Amino acid sequence: xxxxLVIDDSTAVRQLVQSVLAGAGYEIFDAFDGLDGLDKxxxxxxxxxxxxxxxxxxxxxxxxxxxxxxxxxxVPILMLTTEGQPSMIRDARRAGAKGWIVKPVKPELLLIxxxxxxxxxxx
Length: 123
Hints:
It contains 5 helices and 5 strands. The protein is an alpha/beta fold. α2 (34-43) packs parallel to α3 (61-70). It is globular, with a radius of gyration of 13 Å.
């Protein structure tokens, strides 16, 4: 079973993503902001992917991606956010993000994006 970390300060978003991905056979872990996400990226073994919001308290998603890269984290990170400015997308890619999905996202598009990065369904 492939393991995915969902990092978002919105409980509703975390629950929605968890429902979609768990239903497709992924094992889901969650984090409530960038600092919590960074800690879990460093400590959870065998993560296949992290989905991360941009705007969060304590540490933004972009700051988290940069710090993860600096500390040697190799888990692919897919940004999942309401932000869609081209400059922010470029900054995220430069920081190491593997993709960008704008919320609200349709469940089938979320699965397509996840599968594109980590392979076919976990189930």
